[in-house]
Amino acid sequence: MTGEISGAVTTTADPAPLRPMALLRIRPFAVLYLNATVIGLSVMAQTVARSWLAFELTGSNAALGGVLLAFGVAMLVMTPWGGVAADRLPKRLVLQVSVGLLAASSAWIGLAAAFDVIEYWMLLGASVLQAVAFAVFGPARMAFLGEVVPRGSLGNSVSMLLVNNELSRVVGPAVAGVVVGAVTVGIEIIFLSSAALLALGVLTTVRMPPGLPSGDAAVRSPLGELTDGIRYVLRSPQLTALLWCGFGVTMAGLPYVAFLPTVSSDLFDTGSAGYGVLSATAAVGAVVVGLLMGRRRHRGSETRTFVVAGVVFGAAVGLLAVAPTFWAAVLVLLVVGAGNLAFQTANQSLLLGLSDMAYHGRIQGLVMMSFGAFGIAALPLGALADAVGLRWVLGGMGVATLLVMGAFVLVTRGRLAREDVLRDLG
Q1: Where does the record place the Major facilitator superfamily (MFS) profile domain (predicted)?
Q2: Which residue range is the domain that position 45 belongs to?
Q3: What are phi and psi of 254, to 5 degrees?
Q4: Which of 2, 1, 3 is nearest to 419 (CA)?
Q5: What is the pTM assigned to this prediction?
Q6: Do residues 101 and 132 make contact, with C-beta atoms less than 8 angstroms apart?
Q7: CA–CA distance, 216 with 372 (Å, rounded to integer)
Q8: Residue 296 sits in a domain of what CATH number?
């Protein structure tokens, strides 16, 4: 695992990746995929409802950012420990506990809304609970892949799970936007239905293998496990570069999702239904690209995919700032979703392929810290948007994303050149 990135992605090193239907015939992966579907639908639907509820309660971009700030701080603190849990404990147990927490956070807000006692601070508390749950769920789910699918198919399996997430983003936000806008008790329906689906998600994990830890994890302290994982990453320039680049792009570009309610209501006057359309549109672009990536028979230059996707994502976020009409924003968001999905797929595939299985959970925990960081960035960006205008902030986010990708290319340009040579020889 100490070789160059190119050594992990040349087509001669691994057998041809399995296609989606072949992967789904692997029973543990099929169960993991079904579990992700149930969780994705419920979480994405309630995310739309919670953002809209926060906007109704406060009417400010800063408040929208505050919900993500609570999520981000908790994620930033807990995700490294979630990675330790994924490597140290049975992964099935980790999944069950985390999905149970997600169900509890959904039920809490649903009941508070039903009894008309909902307050803004409750949304902050629910965001913290959800962040803790994701902090342990995400690393365990991704680490499971190294155990249940062939190594040469890791990229396609990652792509399938990410496409699954984006399909959930198509169905969940679209349904939530319509229900919230058309039904008086739409908020309550979304949250309580999500809690029921998440309870079902806990049941689906019973059919999964236990995912027992490997190596000597049981004889080290959790802090020792975390320290060992960080040292492992720092010993590899390739892993380090992929992690800081993923962190930077996610923190700079992904906060656009926090501002979609304002894009819909303030920029284009389309309300909650328009918010659902915008959220679903980004997911549609992601699904199309993800399905194409999942059908690849050869991985080719994964690093080149990583770079191109990051540049496309950053440029599209910048274009969103100057979209003149609602339908122009819809077209731009197709590209935003496609670029983000391709970037995240390539990043996860490279990280899994370059690391030892015993460290997969901790590395995924470090990856997910970036999603906590984007939540933290959303609050100051939201306050800045209130002060200078949302379009200026979106434009700056796009430029910042492009600068991060430019720095990655400069740092890794020698490795990228060697990868191209090896790919041509292969």
Answers
A1: 28-413
A2: 5-425
A3: -70, -20
A4: 3
A5: 0.67
A6: yes
A7: 29
A8: 1.20.1250.20
